[in-house]
Amino acid sequence: MSETSPSPPAVAAVLAPAAEHRPLRRGPLLITSLLAVTAGALIYLAPLAAVWRTAWPYALLFAALGAAQLGTVARVLARPASRRVVVAAAAALAVLVVWFLTRGTPVLPGPSPWIPADSVIGFVDYICAGLQVIGVVGFGIVWVLRTVAAARGPEAQAPRRPRLRRAAGAAAVAPVTLVVLLAAFVGFGGASDGFAGAGFPGDTVAPRHLPAGKRSTVEYCRVDGVPLAMDVYAPPGGAATPGRGAPAAMYIHGGGLVLGDRKLSGLGASLSNHEAALFPPLRERLNANGYLVASIDYRLTPAAPWPAPLVDASCAVRFLRAHAADLGIDPSRIGVWGASGGGWLSSMLGLTGRQGGSGPYAEQSSAVQAVVDMFGPTDLNDFTDAPPFIRFLLWAGIGTSTATRHSASPINCVTSEAPPFLIVHGAQDEDVAPRQSVRFAERLRTAGVSAEFVEVAGTGHTLATPGQHPSTQEVTDMVVDFFMATLR
Predict the structure, then answer these.
(1) pLDDT tens sequence across 223-274
(2) Which domains does the chain have, with CATH numbers?
(3) Residue 221 near residue 228, CB atoms below 8 Å
(4) 253 among known catalytic residues
(5) What letter does residue 23 receive in the DSSP assignment?
(6) C-beta separation of 337 from 350 below 8 A
(7) How far is CA 241 from the centre of its chain?
(8) SUPFAM superfamilies from the xrefs (predicted)?
(9) Which of 193, 312, 429, 431 is flagged as catalytic?
(10) 379 tagged catalytic
(11) Exposure of 87 by Cβ count < 10 A (0-12 exposed, 13-18 middle, 19+ buried)?
(12) Active site residue 330
């Protein structure tokens, strides 16, 4: 009986399945996809300790997802087979499902596990989700191309011009790779606070018997399961004064409600630009004059939609009143200041604090007795000539609704019951036009509110420019004198 050789179609049928399991080439598309999911995993793993303190079940889930993602990446790199690529895509898709259920449409219980990652940049979770999408799409394209090539037979496996095709493929993927690298840098930097420690502090103390002349960190409120931190700087002689509590001045950091934190170091501190608000010299001067100084974190937008930052700032004032005896302060003498987004929040707090609110310490008032607004926006519908990045922050923080922007604009919230205002703005400010502060001061005065407006020549979106007039020292003196006059 003679042996017969199989026909060419039979050979192709035998070889095609084998080709499907052959190792894939580590091309630019596959590498970019692996880089994207790795960066996404590192973003949600960076604040894992903070997630554990707020919602430990989600921390366990994130740890499992991270192990799965990094494990599949290692397996694909070791031997990039089609099945392993499918598993890597499934792991990235699982992260997207968790993100959607806890962030996109929050149907799962408990506090959002993404808030710690968003504590410095309010849209880091969106970056993480976007990186996972890039990974899923990239893995899908790789798998489809391999499946199509396997179906065509072994003769389709070897390209006629490998070098040219590789160069063209790398050029096509290069823009996506650059986007992935930039997103990874921003996302991981935000989630880890520039390696300074992500999320919320775990070593807060009780708001009583705080050491004089020292900084202590307390948890001032827990809103929707999210702990919010406040740094309390007690005056050198102690917070209490003979016969009467000390006045308090609360500082709200800037960053357009989207960026920054209260810390004095790390990426969040850089994004907040505390120097622009004169926080270091003002804190020293106010402490030296017997003031207790408080500096707060608040939930950033869009991670926590507006008006979450204002809700948090209001809760901070109620916390100070509720613990006035422990802190040694006078609950009837609380002032607030901030620059840029912090100035905006300070103005809104001064104008709406008497309306009350719900949440922790609801029995206390959120009203303040003095406001210093440093170049904060006052009309959110007046940003057509602002730089693109500033308009992006406004879009991310508030949205595009004209009605929402109108209601969130201090100039539209003025009443005759507002406390005294000191408004300071740089004459060369291109981020927030000085005209906003001019009109705001006029609106306050028209309502019968004490409002002083100071334009600083030689500076822009900061009050710490060498050679400005009034000088940084003179502006500092001005703010201290204002607080001493209004909170005396």
Answers:
(1) 888 899 999 999 997 544 556 799 999 999 999 999 999 999 999 999 999 9
(2) 13-191 (no CATH), 215-486 (3.40.50.1820)
(3) yes
(4) no
(5) P
(6) no
(7) 38
(8) alpha/beta-Hydrolases
(9) 429
(10) no
(11) middle
(12) no
